[in-house]
Give the backbone structure.
Amino acid sequence: MRVDVLTIFPEMFTGFLNTSIIKRAREQGRLEVNLVNIRAYARNKHRNVDDYPFGGGPGMVMQAEPLFLAVEDLLPGGEAARPPVILMSPQGEAFNQGMAEELAREEHLILICGHYEGVDERVRLALVTREISIGDYVLTGGELPAMVIIDAVTRLLPGVLGAPEGAREDSFAMGLLEYPQYTRPRSFRGLEVPEVLLSGNHEQIRRWRRQQALERTWRRRPDLLARVNLSPEDRRFLEEISRRERERTP
Ligand code: 4FV
């Protein structure tokens, strides 16, 4: 996968791109990240890429032209399909695991990192094909959201993570929150690893983990349960814990 990132702070990506799984994916040639400095497309001697908002108001707005020129320079027109041109912004679609899986099927992504109060609306109207938000809060720039998306997508690329995708039971991939994980030592400050995990009985372990994921989701994110295809066994278990809960809190 190729990811072009349009930013005025390419240095923000240095550590992220040269560490751990992202670094290895780039070294393996499974991920190519191309940092594009938007200032290189500013047609004024001070390389300004922002200006005052028409109609007044606080802050500055990122100008349309440098962004259009940068994207057009990335699209030599040879490419059959135009890649998604994604703007990170609080007004975007809420990013989630399903969207990460969708983007991971693309060959090429162009990510635009805004700054200041935002970008000129004509960027949305005539350049951007998708807007994505990583959460309902306001950041100083789109760089961290771009890293979040690259991280969530890269780990889904074939061969990037050790275990083949099918074997992975990511939170949200199953639609549920992840079950509790334990590792050595068996006993830590009086806290023991659940016996079932030491039993070697894989069917019992599978059921325990499923029930733990169900209960954790039911307690912390019941909204997610609506989107999970629950087995009759799952439903019985959820009815059991909600009955127990009702008894516990009459
Ligand atoms: C943001 C978010 C975000 C808004 C103005 C950058 C900032 C500045 N992007 N999810 N939340 N962006 O806060 O994606 O341009």
Observations:
- Residues 88-90, 114-116, 118, 133-135, 137-139, 141-142, 145 surround 4FV (CB under 6 Å).
- The chain is about 35% helix and 15% strand.
- The chain has a mean pLDDT of 93.
- The radius of gyration is 23 Å.
